[in-house]
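Quick review question:
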């Protein structure tokens, strides 16, 4: 798998000379029923061979040919790659060769030769496979697990055993009631302890989504203690006795819920964003506004259609991105260069600034606003107005 840090390093990369190329190769193994491994291997090799042939016609691209031949050799050895996608980033003049095995990200094998690496499918992977925390709780114990790609880690364990009450606790109704209230207080404190731990973790962005494992009887009590920052990350709950569940079983239950609710979660994120955009709140829609908000540092998450692509220009000096194809930068006045797809520059920007990226299947509401929108952390202009109004 690839880490956010590794992705950030790749996002920083850019070629410096016209004869340097950043090559990105996505090998997508076929679904076994569809095609044989032999066929998919041929497909990958054909793709690279074709690129080599095209470049051989132009003798000036020695380095890119070296990289492509190395990719061709790799493609000859892949044989299905255990149903994982293989991604290669290469630029031999700069000594870059990185290989990653990731969950399937693209529908087909692709090869990109450009000034920057093609990161869109990988950047979106973090919203397709969010870092999930699984919180298991009963009235005395709690366990918090973290599931990220193939890795399962226990983050915390809380034990608050209820005091044992024997015959020495008293012999009349008053004492029995008192003991019962005391127990309820202990349970409330126990859930509060778990809720506090989750609240601070949510605020430190230690997880992207959370699933609870808690039985129906205890859930209302626990839920009442949860902070809104935790609540909005809940993808679902399963009922189970945590003492009877191994960490692996709990993770499996949680991932089943994640897989079935993630799409709806993304759609509600889209609705929230578009609603906020209409009310000039914490949302913007359309490329021009998304670019502006990204430059102002307002963006939390970018939402775009899977196949979104748009022409744009990038300033060669200050890196301003503009959806109007202007020859000179409106910010600093220097020359701009045209981008066939704004994602070439926008995605590395998003990765470097740790912004969320959600790719959505065809959606009419998103289509109406130009297939791109962003949920904001704040709105700079409105805060400015508030400041002005206050002063
Ligand atoms: Zn500029």
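Suggested answer, residue by residue:
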């Amino acid at each position: 798998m690839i880490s956010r840090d590794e992705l950030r390093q790749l996002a920083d990369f850019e070629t410096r000379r016209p004869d340097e190329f950043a090559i990105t190769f996505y090998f997508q193994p076929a679904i076994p029923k569809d095609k044989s491994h032999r066929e998919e291997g041929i497909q990958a090799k054909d793709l690279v061979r074709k690129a080599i042939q095209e470049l051989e016609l132009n003798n000036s691209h020695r380095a890119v040919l070296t990289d492509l031949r190395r990719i061709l050799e790799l493609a000859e050895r892949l044989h299905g790659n255990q149903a994982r996608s293989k991604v290669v980033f290469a630029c031999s003049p700069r000594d870059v060769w990185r290989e990653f095995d990731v969950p399937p990200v693209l529908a087909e094998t692709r090869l990109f030769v450009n000034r920057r690496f093609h990161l869109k499918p990988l950047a979106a992977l973090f919203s397709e496979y969010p870092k999930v925390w699984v919180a298991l709780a009963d009235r005395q114990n709690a366990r918090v697990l973290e599931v990220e790609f193939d890795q399962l880690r226990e983050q915390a364990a809380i034990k608050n055993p209820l005091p044992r009450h024997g015959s020495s606790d008293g012999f009349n109704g008053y004492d029995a009631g008192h003991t019962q209230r005391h127990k309820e207080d202990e349970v409330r404190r126990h859930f509060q302890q778990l809720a506090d731990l989750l609240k601070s973790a949510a605020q430190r962005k230690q997880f992207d989504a959370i699933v609870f494992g808690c039985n129906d009887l205890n859930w209302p009590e626990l839920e009442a203690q949860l902070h809104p920052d935790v609540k909005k990350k809940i993808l679902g709950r399963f009922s189970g006795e945590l003492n009877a569940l191994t960490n692996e079983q709990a993770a499996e239950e949680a991932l089943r819920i994640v897989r079935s609710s993630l799409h709806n979660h993304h759609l509600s994120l889209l609705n929230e964003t578009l609603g906020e955009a209409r009310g000039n709140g914490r949302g913007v829609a359309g490329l021009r506004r998304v670019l502006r908000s990204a430059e102002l540092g307002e963006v939390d998450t970018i939402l775009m259609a899977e196949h979104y692509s748009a022409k744009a220009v990038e300033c060669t000096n200050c890196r301003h991105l503009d959806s109007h194809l202007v020859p000179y930068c409106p910010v600093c006045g220097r020359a701009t260069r045209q981008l066939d797809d704004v994602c070439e520059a926008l995605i590395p920007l998003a990765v470097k600034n740790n912004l969320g990226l959600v790719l959505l299947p065809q959606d009419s509401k998103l289509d109406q606003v130009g297939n791109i929108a962003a949920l904001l952390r704040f709105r700079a202009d409105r805060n400015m107005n508030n400041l002005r109004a206050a002063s």
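Why it works: Residues 315, 317-318, 320, 329, 331-332, 334 surround zinc ion (CB under 6 Å). The chain is about 40% helix and 25% strand.
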